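Severity: low
Component: inverse-folding endpoint
Summary: output formatting inconsistent between runs
Steps to reproduce: submit the following structure tokens with default settings.
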């Protein structure tokens, strides 16, 4: 079974095949957006996938280029030809030369796709190969993205903007600041997520942020702009076609005022407090702008509105699909990327169907419901980062909820967030603080602001004062105040049942069963039973889909009758992964989408439950039925009882469905695949350890401690270094390597509340071990291991953050056979039905098991693509009853290597030391594929934005224990013709061993020092390894400077060895002609 043909027809609800309007085009290239980063997440997987569907429907051949292996978009069945290659001008030029596309669609790959398209045009590559840009003209990209061109366009149209001037240097910026006065906003050109920008209140801040902004901008340009902080931020999603017909898909009101990036801002659709007259004005301006800029398809237009004076200014536009367009699509049922692709191909709005009024040119937003979007942050992953929101985006994901009223939608959004909160009250210790302290805290925009405001209202805060401090409209604060007042009434019934009428109101206002259970101190199922007896149950309404015939998805409410029917077909329900976050990303959505496809293929009705607006799983036609709902026991059970499926799949949505699986089983839900008890056994260290011991598989010595005294005793018996972590985590949350008793005491004191129910786990840390992992598919009686992945970084770096290679490049055959044998043993012992991922470490010629996860892991898409085996599809069919043997799976040797590299958000957190450890901190990943390991590694680094130099100067500064490894690395760099700079200790060591190096001073040793050399662009690559607590503070400035000045940097010897290998291979073989995924898979078949 191959991966090529396993994506079924997913366009069944769409109108009958119209002919493409543009017959001059046969082959279209789509550029994806690359890895998931802050500011550019999986919404572009969604828009790119929609583009593939739309254009294939019109009969075009699709060539897709993207570096991200974790997405559905880069599966070989989505486009006709799929390149997983670095998104660089060089790489794209080669693909264009090879594939000769007729057209390029630039506006569905986020900022990355747009910038690359502009650059390919600027360098004459598109012209050379006769490639036409469709959807948006090149000069339109400039008019939308270049701050000067945009300002000139607005002036010509007479549309007001904040006063501003562009600057190309700090000196220019200072002169503009003198003229405009503070506060000011700095906005770099051609960037995303507000990268490099920010608010400045004085000259010192201006220098810092302008310097950061100039280096972030592709053209070294920033706009210095008057601040409109505190004004209302309003967005319109507008679509225009070639006939100049324009429609507004969605009006979005940001609840947070100007000053907080829209990606972090909590917002509603429709606009709830903005007058019709103002909305008309915004629409008028938007239409003038898109007409002047001449975008075909979707455009996002952002405005600021001063509620005091009524003044409206345009802030910026995105002449492409954006995060807001994914939200607008899901909020309205209007698939913007799908429609934009049809329009780019020459269709017009009056030729596309609209469920209400015939065709889309007559579209107006409708829908008797309120949508709330709320962001999900990952501050806890980054030590030393201040939780503070501004014009630079910091969230890593978002949720969307739909309710009949604002209160219901808001509370559904909160319980969708997966942060252990099911309502707004009693978060952290805010309830114990006095009013003055709460008012002080709420005055700074943070990820906690709404929760703090809730407690401030409980303590009697004045709505006017809160409005003054936060600039949040009084309407929203008053709505929250009404929730607080109702909650206070309910608190009078602690440990008792609520009066029926109070319970009914609470449910209509969105209070979750679990939250009521928490505040009243009574079991959740007694609340459920009481409301069911009262007839207070979730009912459902549809969101009809525009642009296609007869499609809808569904949301629940306690405020309307049920209008959604149920079919008599056999059904299977898949629980999604909720919001994107560090540790649980798009890979899990990939598995859920494949599950839905496989369920449909097997003849069942597929039902998906999820609340993430950015993903393909929440596209209207991925499953037969989509419920856009929070993944809580209350919401999932309600749908289960309505639809009565044959069973529910929980092992694909990461930790999200697993957190509720136990309670679902207790409530009578049938879970398909591996039992919840087996999943729990693998999570429960103590039970798991006993099973592994019984199987005779080596594991590092370990213990569990419920107190500091126990932890010290275990540490003394095992010996340092140790790996310590809390029980039950995903993404290495709060894991640390501890080198001595002092560090252990600090960890126990600071990290976790240690109790017998929540002990900490202590393992011997295997220093210098090779870490690897194996994925397996099992039916409980038999297991198949498609691949073993070798991590490039040694043990101690979280598997999600380590680069890894398939097939392994230096694990012996003997150890590979052992890993395969252990994996199969464990799969059968745990009775795994579906997927399994096991992590191993090889030390002292012994294979040790570290952990097992009997569920989908983040490696599934990677292994599926490199090995050509559709793992999630096969696993789903096994859960539906097929035997593993029926798939005839065989290990096919292949000649290519796949190297995954993680991508980090350190550029967004300049205060964080970018050193790798056991806590996962990457937001996404890229894949390099080539016929040898070195080139695959080189390409992976290139794709991750860390282009390795082919000549120049390398700085090597390592701790003592790494000197021996650094010697080999330095010798190879010297052979390749690089000059070596090194700090005193390293330099002396290299010179003693016959490798010439120039000594360079550390920061504290005088001038010119390392930082001067970095600033003067004298260093092309940095190799710097910190060690334990002693040097952590000492040299973080080197790594931070590397990020700031965009110099590739490496923090482990293993990665340095891989890099020097990559550079050597690249110099030896040159830049090979890229091969598509389909070509790699075809070569495998020949072997």
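Observed output (run 2 of 3):
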């Amino acid at each position: 079974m191959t991966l090529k043909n396993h994506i079924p027809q997913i366009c069944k609800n769409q109108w009958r095949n119209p002919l493409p309007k543009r017959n001059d085009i046969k082959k279209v290239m789509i550029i994806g957006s690359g890895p998931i980063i802050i500011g550019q997440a999986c919404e572009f997987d969604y828009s790119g996938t929609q583009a593939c569907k739309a254009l294939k429907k019109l009969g075009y051949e699709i060539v897709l280029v993207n570096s991200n292996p974790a997405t559905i978009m880069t599966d070989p069945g989505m486009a006709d030809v799929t390149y997983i290659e670095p998104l660089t001008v060089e790489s794209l030029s080669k693909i264009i030369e090879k594939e000769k596309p007729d057209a390029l669609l630039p506006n569905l790959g986020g900022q990355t796709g747009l910038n690359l398209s502009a650059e390919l045009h600027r360098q004459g590559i598109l012209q050379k190969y006769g490639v036409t840009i469709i959807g948006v003209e090149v000069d339109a990209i400039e008019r939308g993205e270049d701050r000067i061109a945009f300002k000139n366009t607005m002036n010509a149209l007479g549309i007001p903007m904040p006063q501003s001037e562009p600057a190309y240097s700090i000196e220019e910026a200072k002169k503009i600041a003198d003229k405009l006065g503070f506060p000011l906003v700095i906005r770099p050109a051609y960037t995303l997520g507000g990268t490099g920008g920010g608010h400045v209140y004085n000259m010192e801040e201006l220098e810092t942020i302008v310097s950061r902004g100039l280096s972030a901008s592709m053209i070294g340009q920033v706009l210095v702009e008057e601040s409109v902080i505190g004004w209302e931020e309003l967005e319109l999603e507008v679509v225009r076609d070639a006939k100049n017909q324009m429609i507004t898909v969605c009006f979005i009101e940001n609840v947070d005022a100007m000053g907080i990036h829209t990606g972090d801002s909590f917002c509603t659709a429709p606009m709830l407090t903005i007058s019709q007259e103002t909305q008309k004005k915004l629409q008028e301006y938007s239409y003038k702008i898109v007409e002047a800029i001449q975008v075909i398809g979707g455009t996002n237009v952002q405005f600021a509105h001063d509620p005091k004076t009524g003044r409206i200014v345009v802030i910026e536009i995105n002449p492409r699909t954006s995060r807001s367009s994914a939200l607008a699509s899901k909020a309205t049922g209007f698939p913007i990327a799908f429609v934009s692709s049809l329009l780019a191909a020459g269709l017009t709005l009056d030729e596309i169907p609209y469920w209400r009024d015939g065709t889309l040119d007559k579209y107006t937003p409708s829908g008797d419901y309120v949508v709330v979007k709320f962001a999900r942050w990952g501050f806890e992953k980054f030590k030393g980062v201040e939780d503070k929101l501004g014009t630079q985006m910091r969230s890593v994901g978002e949720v969307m909820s739909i309710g009949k009223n604002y209160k219901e939608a808001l509370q559904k959004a909160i319980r969708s967030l997966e942060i252990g909160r099911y309502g707004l009250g009693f978060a952290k210790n805010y309830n114990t603080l006095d009013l003055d302290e709460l008012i002080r805290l709420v005055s700074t925009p943070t990820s906690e602001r709404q929760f703090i405001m809730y407690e401030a209202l409980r303590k009697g805060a004045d709505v006017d004062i809160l409005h003054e401090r936060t600039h949040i409209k009084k309407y929203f604060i008053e709505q929250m105040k009404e929730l607080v007042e109702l909650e206070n009434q309910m608190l009078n019934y602690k440990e008792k049942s609520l009066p029926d009428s109070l319970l009914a109101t609470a449910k209509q206002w969105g209070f979750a069963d679990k939250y009521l259970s928490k505040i009243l101190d009574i079991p959740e199922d007694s609340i459920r039973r009481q409301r069911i007896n009262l007839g207070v149950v979730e009912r459902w309404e549809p969101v009809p889909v525009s642009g296609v015939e007869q499609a809808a998805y569904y949301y629940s409410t306690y405020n309307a009758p049920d209008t959604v029917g149920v079919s008599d077909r056999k059904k299977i329900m898949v629980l999604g992964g909720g919001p994107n976050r560090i540790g649980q990303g798009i890979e899990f959505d990939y598995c859920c989408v494949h599950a839905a496809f496989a369920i449909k293929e097997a003849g069942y009705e597929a039902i998906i439950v999820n609340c993430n607006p950015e993903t393909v799983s929440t596209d209207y036609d991925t499953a037969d039925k989509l419920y856009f709902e929070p993944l809580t026991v209350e919401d999932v059970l309600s749908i289960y009882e309505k639809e009565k499926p044959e069973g529910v799949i929980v092992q694909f949505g990461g930790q999200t469905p697993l957190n509720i699986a136990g309670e679902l089983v207790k409530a009578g839900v049938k879970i398909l695949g591996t039992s919840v008890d087996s999943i729990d056994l693998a999570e429960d260290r103590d039970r798991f350890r006993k099973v592994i011991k019984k199987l005779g598989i080596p594991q590092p010595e370990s213990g569990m401690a419920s107190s500091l005294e126990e932890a010290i005793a275990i540490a003394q018996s095992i010996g340092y270094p140790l790996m310590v972590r809390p029980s039950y985590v995903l993404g290495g949350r709060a894991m640390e390597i501890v080198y001595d008793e002092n560090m252990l005491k600090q960890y126990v004191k600071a990290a976790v509340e240690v109790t017998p129910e929540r002990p900490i786990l202590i393992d011997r840390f295997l220093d210098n071990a090779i870490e690897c992992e194996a994925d397996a598919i099992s039916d409980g009686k038999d297991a198949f291991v498609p691949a073993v992945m070798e991590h490039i970084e040694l043990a101690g770096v979280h598997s999600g953050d380590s680069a890894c290679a398939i097939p392994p490049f230096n694990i012996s055959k003997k150890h590979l056979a052992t890993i395969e044998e252990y994996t199969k043993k464990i799969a059968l012992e745990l009775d795994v039905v579906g997927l399994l991922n096991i992590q191993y470490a090889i030390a002292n010629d012994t294979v040790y098991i570290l952990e097992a996860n009997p569920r989908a892991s983040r490696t599934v898409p990677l292994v599926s693509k490199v090995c050509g085996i559709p793992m999630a599809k096969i696993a789903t069919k096994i859960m539906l009853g097929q035997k593993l043997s029926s798939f005839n799976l065989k290990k096919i040797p292949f000649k290519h290597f796949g190297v995954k590299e993680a991508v980090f958000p350190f550029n967004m957190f300049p205060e964080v030391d970018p050193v790798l450890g056991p806590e996962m901190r990457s937001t996404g990943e890229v894949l390099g594929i080539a016929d040898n390991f070195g080139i695959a590694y080189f390409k992976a680094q290139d794709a991750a934005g860390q282009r390795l130099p082919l000549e120049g100067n390398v700085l090597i500064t390592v701790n003592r224990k790494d000197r021996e490894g650094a010697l080999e690395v330095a010798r190879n760099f010297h052979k390749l013709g690089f000059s070596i700079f090194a700090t005193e200790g390293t330099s002396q060591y290299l010179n003693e061993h016959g490798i010439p190096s120039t000594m360079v001073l550390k920061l504290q040793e005088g001038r010119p020092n390392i930082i001067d050399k970095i600033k003067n662009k004298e260093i092309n690559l940095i190799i710097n390894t910190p060690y334990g607590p002693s040097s952590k503070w000492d040299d973080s400035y080197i790594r931070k400077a590397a990020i700031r000045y965009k110099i590739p940097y490496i923090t482990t010897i293993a990665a340095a060895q891989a890099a020097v290998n990559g550079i050597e291979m690249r110099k030896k073989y040159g830049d090979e002609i890229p091969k598509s995924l389909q070509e790699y898979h075809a070569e495998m078949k020949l072997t």
